[in-house]
Design brief:
Elements lengths: L1 H9 L3 H4 L4 H33 L2 H24 L7 H30 L1 H64 L11 H54 L4 H9 L3 H24 L4 H42 L3 H29 L1
């Protein structure tokens, strides 16, 4: 039962292979088994690749089965269409397009399985990339908010600077009127005279302005700090919003790129393995000598080809004979007097009818 299934997979003619020896059947059963297991591996590879894309097992398995059947049909077609001949070079030339197609199929099959085999290493590469992307993302988002935050901080610094300058002015006025009272500066007279009072009034006025300035600037500083807090909250929210995009950066294409950053030699050997598996049925058929099945298949094909050629030749001969007979018949009819008189009479009647019809039309016009 299993042998019949593998023979079916190899694409051989069942009627011919059943009449062949057991060894010949085993050879083609081996080729069919290779075709079948290549399709199974293609199905597994496609299912894994599609699972990384859709993140749904049922969808991945369904399309994986479809892909496996497609590869099975292609491989079966490739093997079944290679015909044995007396020249190996002719066979290689015949198989070269199919070998190229097998290389493409091997590449498509091997890549998803490489992703699974090197999954841990790929995850490490993706983690490093995600961390760098997170840092870059924070830096880019910060550049959007930093100018406005810096402007608000500069405003706070300026407001505090106004208060500091006013405090220094008040302290200077305080020192001036105290020095006047002690007789160290100004009039150099000890006591609280008119000059002292004038300087004391300037100090008190400046102190009142300082108090008002502190109140006004405190409100402005508080507003700026609230605005800074809101901007920082918006910045944090932007980081949280974009982080899931970075966290989900592990799709099929991202894994392919991460695989490309790993050492190429292991991936290359895996590709060679699948290439050997994919092309082995083709090379097995090309390298092997003509067997019993090939001779019987050639015998049937040449028999049909000869029969078709005979039928075509017979039709050509029949056509040539018919043309020759028809030519002779019409040549003889040229000399037939009875046929001439009959045709002359009919032509005369036709001319009379045309003349009568023309006369009737002209009479109606008048």
């Amino acid at each position: 039962m299993l042998k019949k299934f593998f023979l079916l997979c190899s694409g051989v003619d069942q009627n011919i292979i059943n009449d062949c020896s057991n060894g010949e059947q085993n050879k083609y059963a081996g080729i069919g088994a290779t075709v079948f297991f290549t399709a199974v591996m293609a199905m597994l590879a496609a299912s894994y690749a599609l699972y990384t894309v859709f993140d749904n097992a049922y969808t991945a398995i369904f399309f994986g089965i479809v892909w496996g059947l497609l590869i099975f049909n292609l491989d079966r077609y490739i093997v079944s269409t290679i015909k044995k001949s007396d020249s190996k070079w002719k066979e290689l030339a015949q198989a070269s397009p199919r070998i190229l197609l097998a290389m493409i199929i091997a590449l498509v099959i091997s890549k998803p399985l490489e992703l699974k085999i090197f999954e841990k290493e790929i995850n490490q590469v993706l983690l490093t990339e995600k961390n760098q992307m997170t840092l870059d993302n924070k830096e880019q988002i910060a550049k959007q908010f930093e100018p406005e935050i810096a402007a608000l901080n500069n405003g706070i610094t300026a407001l505090k600077g106004e208060i500091t300058a006013k405090e220094q002015e008040v302290n200077d006025l305080y020192e001036t009127y105290i020095a006047e009272a002690e007789g160290r500066k100004g009039t150099l007279l000890l006591g609280k005279g008119p000059v002292y009072k004038e300087k004391r009034d300037k100090h008190d006025a400046a102190l009142l302005e300082l108090s008002q300035l502190k109140q006004e600037n405190a409100v402005k500083i508080q507003n700026n700090e609230a605005a800074i807090g809101q901007l920082q909250a918006d910045q944090k929210q932007a980081e949280l919003t974009t982080q899931p995009i970075i966290s989900n950066f592990d799709g099929f294409m991202a894994r392919i790129n991460a695989l490309g950053k790993l050492p190429w030699l292991p991936s290359f050997f895996i590709f060679l393995l699948f290439l050997a598996i994919e092309t082995s049925p083709i090379f097995a058929k090309v390298i092997s000598p003509k067997g019993e099945y090939d001779f019987k298949l050639e015998d049937e094909e040449t028999a049909i080809k000869t029969w078709v050629a005979q039928k075509v030749h017979q039709r050509e001969e029949m056509l040539q004979t018919d043309v020759a007979v028809s030519s002779k018949v019409y040549t003889d009819l040229k000399e037939d007097e009875e046929l001439y008189n009959h045709k002359r009479q009919k032509a005369n009647e036709l001319m009379q009818l045309q003349a009568d019809s023309f006369f009737e039309k002209q009479q109606k016009l008048l």
